[in-house]
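Data deposition worksheet. Section B asks for the primary sequence of the deposited chain exactly as it was used as input, without tags or linkers unless they were present during the calculation. Section C holds the resulting structure in C-alpha coordinate form. Section D is free text for depositor observations; keep each observation to a single sentence. Incomplete worksheets are returned to the depositor.
Section A, Depositor: J.P.
Section B:
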Amino acid sequence: MSAQPTFLETIGPVSSWRKLTYEAFETFAVANSDLIIELESDGTTTIMPTASLDSSDNEADFIADVKIYARDKGGRAPSSSVGFRLPDGSVKSPNASYISPDRLADLPEGESKRFPRLVPDFIVEVVSPSDKLADVEAKVRDTWIANGVRLAWLVDVDSDKLWVYRADHSVELVSPLDREITGEDVLPGFTFDLRLLQ
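Section C:
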Protein backbone atom coordinates (compact mmCIF):
# COMPACT_ATOMS: atom_id res chain seq x y z
CA MET A 1 0.00 0.00 0.00
CA SER A 2 1.48 3.35 -1.00
CA ALA A 3 1.66 6.22 1.46
CA GLN A 4 -0.64 9.19 1.04
CA PRO A 5 1.12 12.33 -0.19
CA THR A 6 1.57 15.05 2.41
CA PHE A 7 -0.14 18.39 2.00
CA LEU A 8 3.16 19.98 0.93
CA GLU A 9 3.58 17.37 -1.78
CA THR A 10 0.13 18.13 -3.23
CA ILE A 11 0.49 21.91 -3.38
CA GLY A 12 3.26 23.19 -5.62
CA PRO A 13 4.12 26.59 -7.04
CA VAL A 14 1.12 28.62 -8.20
CA SER A 15 1.44 30.36 -11.58
CA SER A 16 -0.52 33.27 -12.94
CA TRP A 17 -1.54 33.53 -16.58
CA ARG A 18 -1.60 37.33 -16.36
CA LYS A 19 1.56 38.88 -17.78
CA LEU A 20 3.25 41.71 -15.95
CA THR A 21 5.85 44.23 -16.97
CA TYR A 22 8.92 44.32 -14.76
CA GLU A 23 7.67 47.55 -13.16
CA ALA A 24 4.26 46.01 -12.36
CA PHE A 25 5.96 42.91 -10.98
CA GLU A 26 8.22 45.00 -8.75
CA THR A 27 5.21 46.89 -7.37
CA PHE A 28 3.31 43.61 -6.80
CA ALA A 29 6.30 41.92 -5.13
CA VAL A 30 7.02 44.86 -2.82
CA ALA A 31 3.34 45.08 -1.83
CA ASN A 32 3.37 41.33 -1.06
CA SER A 33 6.81 41.03 0.53
CA ASP A 34 5.65 38.14 2.71
CA LEU A 35 5.33 35.97 -0.42
CA ILE A 36 8.07 34.34 -2.50
CA ILE A 37 7.26 35.55 -6.02
CA GLU A 38 9.24 34.99 -9.21
CA LEU A 39 8.77 36.64 -12.60
CA GLU A 40 9.13 34.32 -15.58
CA SER A 41 10.77 35.49 -18.79
CA ASP A 42 7.35 35.56 -20.52
CA GLY A 43 5.94 37.99 -17.93
CA THR A 44 3.90 35.45 -15.95
CA THR A 45 4.46 35.13 -12.22
CA THR A 46 4.95 32.15 -9.95
CA ILE A 47 4.22 32.21 -6.23
CA MET A 48 6.43 29.68 -4.51
CA PRO A 49 5.31 27.79 -1.41
CA THR A 50 7.32 28.22 1.76
CA ALA A 51 9.87 25.50 2.47
CA SER A 52 9.65 22.57 4.87
CA LEU A 53 11.81 22.54 8.00
CA ASP A 54 14.27 20.05 6.48
CA SER A 55 14.54 21.92 3.17
CA SER A 56 14.99 25.29 4.85
CA ASP A 57 17.60 23.86 7.22
CA ASN A 58 19.56 22.47 4.25
CA GLU A 59 19.23 25.83 2.50
CA ALA A 60 20.55 27.58 5.61
CA ASP A 61 23.61 25.30 5.70
CA PHE A 62 24.51 26.35 2.16
CA ILE A 63 23.86 30.04 2.86
CA ALA A 64 25.95 29.97 6.05
CA ASP A 65 29.00 28.39 4.40
CA VAL A 66 28.81 30.60 1.31
CA LYS A 67 28.39 33.70 3.52
CA ILE A 68 31.53 32.79 5.49
CA TYR A 69 33.38 32.34 2.18
CA ALA A 70 32.20 35.75 0.93
CA ARG A 71 33.31 37.47 4.14
CA ASP A 72 36.74 35.91 3.80
CA LYS A 73 37.28 36.26 0.03
CA GLY A 74 35.07 39.20 -0.90
CA GLY A 75 31.81 39.29 -2.78
CA ARG A 76 28.28 38.86 -1.45
CA ALA A 77 26.17 35.88 -0.37
CA PRO A 78 22.59 37.11 0.12
CA SER A 79 19.69 35.25 1.68
CA SER A 80 17.27 33.20 -0.39
CA SER A 81 14.77 36.06 -0.46
CA VAL A 82 16.88 38.05 -2.96
CA GLY A 83 15.45 38.30 -6.45
CA PHE A 84 17.93 38.59 -9.32
CA ARG A 85 16.75 40.43 -12.44
CA LEU A 86 18.23 38.27 -15.20
CA PRO A 87 19.04 39.12 -18.84
CA ASP A 88 16.06 37.09 -20.14
CA GLY A 89 13.67 39.37 -18.20
CA SER A 90 12.94 36.94 -15.39
CA VAL A 91 13.39 37.64 -11.68
CA LYS A 92 14.51 34.51 -9.82
CA SER A 93 15.45 33.63 -6.24
CA PRO A 94 17.91 30.79 -5.63
CA ASN A 95 18.15 28.99 -2.29
CA ALA A 96 21.77 30.19 -1.93
CA SER A 97 24.07 32.27 -4.12
CA TYR A 98 27.43 33.97 -4.40
CA ILE A 99 28.31 37.12 -6.33
CA SER A 100 31.99 37.81 -6.98
CA PRO A 101 33.56 41.26 -6.51
CA ASP A 102 34.02 41.44 -10.31
CA ARG A 103 30.30 41.02 -10.97
CA LEU A 104 29.40 43.40 -8.14
CA ALA A 105 31.58 46.07 -9.77
CA ASP A 106 29.20 46.03 -12.75
CA LEU A 107 26.09 46.55 -10.59
CA PRO A 108 24.39 49.84 -11.53
CA GLU A 109 24.21 52.38 -8.71
CA GLY A 110 21.11 51.95 -6.56
CA GLU A 111 20.40 48.42 -7.83
CA SER A 112 21.33 46.79 -4.53
CA LYS A 113 18.21 48.40 -3.02
CA ARG A 114 15.95 46.67 -5.59
CA PHE A 115 15.95 43.44 -7.58
CA PRO A 116 19.49 43.78 -8.92
CA ARG A 117 20.21 43.42 -12.63
CA LEU A 118 22.86 40.90 -11.82
CA VAL A 119 23.68 37.25 -12.52
CA PRO A 120 25.28 35.47 -9.57
CA ASP A 121 28.44 33.44 -10.19
CA PHE A 122 27.14 30.49 -8.17
CA ILE A 123 23.71 29.29 -7.07
CA VAL A 124 22.21 26.39 -5.14
CA GLU A 125 18.70 25.02 -5.62
CA VAL A 126 17.44 22.59 -2.96
CA VAL A 127 14.54 20.34 -3.98
CA SER A 128 11.73 20.62 -1.43
CA PRO A 129 8.67 18.36 -0.98
CA SER A 130 6.50 20.72 -3.06
CA ASP A 131 8.94 20.75 -6.00
CA LYS A 132 8.94 18.58 -9.08
CA LEU A 133 12.53 17.61 -9.85
CA ALA A 134 12.04 18.19 -13.60
CA ASP A 135 10.88 21.78 -12.92
CA VAL A 136 13.90 22.55 -10.74
CA GLU A 137 16.23 20.95 -13.31
CA ALA A 138 14.73 23.19 -16.00
CA LYS A 139 15.13 26.26 -13.77
CA VAL A 140 18.81 25.49 -13.20
CA ARG A 141 19.59 24.65 -16.83
CA ASP A 142 17.27 27.00 -18.76
CA THR A 143 17.31 29.99 -16.44
CA TRP A 144 20.38 30.05 -14.22
CA ILE A 145 22.99 28.53 -16.55
CA ALA A 146 21.42 30.02 -19.69
CA ASN A 147 21.62 33.51 -18.14
CA GLY A 148 25.28 33.25 -17.17
CA VAL A 149 25.62 31.50 -13.81
CA ARG A 150 29.04 29.84 -13.84
CA LEU A 151 28.36 27.02 -11.35
CA ALA A 152 25.09 25.63 -10.00
CA TRP A 153 24.29 22.84 -7.57
CA LEU A 154 20.91 21.12 -7.67
CA VAL A 155 20.42 19.10 -4.49
CA ASP A 156 17.80 16.40 -3.88
CA VAL A 157 18.55 15.20 -0.37
CA ASP A 158 15.71 12.64 -0.35
CA SER A 159 17.22 10.84 -3.34
CA ASP A 160 20.79 11.31 -1.99
CA LYS A 161 21.89 13.16 -5.15
CA LEU A 162 23.49 16.43 -6.17
CA TRP A 163 23.97 17.58 -9.75
CA VAL A 164 26.75 20.00 -10.64
CA TYR A 165 25.90 22.27 -13.59
CA ARG A 166 28.68 24.26 -15.22
CA ALA A 167 28.78 27.18 -17.66
CA ASP A 168 30.05 24.84 -20.40
CA HIS A 169 26.69 22.99 -20.04
CA SER A 170 28.29 19.89 -18.56
CA VAL A 171 26.40 18.16 -15.75
CA GLU A 172 27.95 15.85 -13.16
CA LEU A 173 26.05 13.64 -10.71
CA VAL A 174 27.38 13.33 -7.17
CA SER A 175 25.85 10.45 -5.21
CA PRO A 176 25.67 9.47 -2.43
CA LEU A 177 25.96 12.68 -0.41
CA ASP A 178 28.80 11.32 1.70
CA ARG A 179 31.70 13.64 0.86
CA GLU A 180 32.89 17.21 0.51
CA ILE A 181 32.38 19.08 -2.75
CA THR A 182 34.38 22.07 -3.96
CA GLY A 183 33.49 25.39 -5.54
CA GLU A 184 35.92 24.59 -8.35
CA ASP A 185 37.41 27.65 -10.07
CA VAL A 186 34.26 29.73 -9.42
CA LEU A 187 34.74 29.74 -5.63
CA PRO A 188 38.44 28.87 -5.21
CA GLY A 189 39.12 27.26 -1.84
CA PHE A 190 35.43 26.73 -1.00
CA THR A 191 34.28 23.31 0.17
CA PHE A 192 30.91 22.12 1.42
CA ASP A 193 30.41 18.96 3.46
CA LEU A 194 27.39 17.16 1.96
CA ARG A 195 27.13 15.02 5.11
CA LEU A 196 25.57 18.06 6.84
CA LEU A 197 22.39 17.66 4.77
CA GLN A 198 19.36 15.92 6.21
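Section D:
Residues 8 and 130 are 5 Å apart (CA to CA).
The mean pLDDT is 90.
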